[in-house]
């Protein structure tokens, strides 16, 4: 069953290019990753949306995702409300609409 993960970020002023550059080629060889996009959701705010073949594939790539996060963590601002620098969610598709 396919799955998605979404991670929300707020980027420090002047660090948008470094944030985007850190993602350019990292996911190319992640097993089970079908598609990923970075979306600008507001001023200095971004989300990564990734589609995976399964929850198992997503889970097996978590060490690579964490290593990638560590490579650009210094570009991120705290999101507040105890979230830290990321707000991740993930889960299997329960209803495919199109």
List the helices and strands and how they pair.
Layout: E1 3-10, H1 16-21, E2 33-42, E3 45-52, H2 55-60, H3 62-72, E4 87-92
Antiparallel strand pairs: 1-3, 1-4, 2-3
Task: Detail the poorly predicted runs.
Answer: none
- What structural class should be given to the helix and strand makeup? alpha+beta
- Say how many strands there are: 4
Give me the number of helical elements.
Answer: 3
- Major beta-sheet overview: 4 strands, antiparallel
Output mean pLDDT.
93
Give the proportion of residues in helices: 10-25%
Order of neighbouring strands in the sheet with most strands: 2-3-1-4
In terms of quaternary structure, what is this?
A: single chain
**Could you tell me how far the N terminus lies from the C terminus, measured between alpha carbons in angstroms?**
16 Å
Strand content: 25-35%
Secondary-structure element series: EHEEHHE
* Overall outline: globular
Radius of gyration: 14 Å
